Amino acid sequence: xxxxxRIKLENINFFYGNQRALKDINLLVYDNQVTxxxxxxxxxxxxxxxxxxxxxxxxxxxxxxxxxYLDGKDIYDYSVDVVDLRRRVGMVFQKPNPFPKTIFxxxxxxxxxxxxxxxxxxxxxxxxxxxxAALWGEVKDNLHKSALALSGGQQQRLCIARALAVEPEVxxxxxxxxxxxxxxxxxxxxxxxxxxxxxxxxxxTHNMQQAARISDxxxxxxxxxxxEYDITRKIFTNPTKKITExxxxxxxx
Length: 253
Hints:
Structural class: alpha/beta
CATH class: Alpha Beta
Number of domains: 1
Number of strands: 10
Distance between the termini: 36 Å
CATH architecture: 3-Layer(aba) Sandwich
Mean pLDDT: 94
Strand order of the largest sheet: 6-7-8-3-9-10
Shape: globular
Low-confidence stretches: none
Strand content: 25-35%
């Protein structure tokens, strides 16, 4: 059965001042799949993932060339509301970044910012989002305690719940488990497998085994160039290019 295309990148170049950080990226991201972006440090992984919801615009003196389509519409079209785009394309960062508020208020934050005041609806959404983030059972009796009291792994799942509360279509994850211990990492990986039933997920990871375990498609990036992009199984067992094989087998990087 053919996969639906959720995001399409056409000839994307990205610049920090005069320095070109991404070079002619063409990419299809498929719906309800996990796409992993791998590559050595400094190769442009985080820059690329932040292209999908225009987060790079927050950095001064940057520019982008090319087209990015979300559900067939160019996200740089003048009619696109960037706030709405970032609601539709949520983001989870490398380091858990809960607000210094209660667990409940962290998850409810985006709803309130979007003008939702119905307390019953908010409470239902908070519960559902925490359940979807596999955190409800651990925090349901402590919703009004500070989110900062949670463990690192719990804080990261809380940040995922916060992103889910506003009903995104795409979830971007920039090394979401790199600051976590192996047990918390496993929980995040299991959660990603569950979430892809409802969401399209793009994840940056420096961990080869993680990419192999959780992703359906893998993109290998080197010095801002897309070296290879294919089904994950093929990338890890039979890559087309020798440089991909060398990176995956640990010969460099």
